Amino acid sequence: MAEYVKVIAASALSPGQACEVQAGGRTLALVNVEGTFHAVDNRCVHRGGPLGQGFVDGFQLGCPWHNWNYDVRTGEMTGNPEFRVACYPVKVEEGQVFVNSEPVAR
Ligand code: FES
Questions:
Q1: What atom of ligand 1 comes closest to residue 63's alpha carbon?
Q2: Is the CB of 91 under 6 A from ligand 1?
Q3: Taking 80 as the threshold, does the pLDDT of residue 1 lie above it?
Q4: Which CATH number goes with the domain that contains 86?
Q5: What is the mean pLDDT of residues 35-61?
Q6: In a mutational test of the pocket of ligand 1, which residue from 42, 68, 69, 80 has the highest number of ligand atoms less than 8 Å from its CB?
Q7: Is the predicted pLDDT of residue 87 greater than 80, yes or no?
Q8: Domain limits at 48?
């Protein structure tokens, strides 16, 4: 069972922003939605675009390559939930963001 890994200071990622982080050998996209952090696979299921470099609009994370959008709460592609990226547990402690590299079971 994977453990939580400290990935970034919470203050380093503003609301409405995304970034790429490393946890347990994976590259993940970390998103701040109004102060709540979410983590999903960084690799877009379309052609592998880096979601952590994408655009945040509410709970939507848009791929920077061809703008497929995903809901960061579920990992589902907007309008076509058959496509999805994995979601990962996130917690914040003492101003630090921790991510577990074991995906949330769906
Ligand atoms: S690679 Fe993400 S939308 Fe095409």
A1: 2
A2: no
A3: no
A4: 2.102.10.10
A5: 98
A6: 68
A7: yes
A8: 4-100
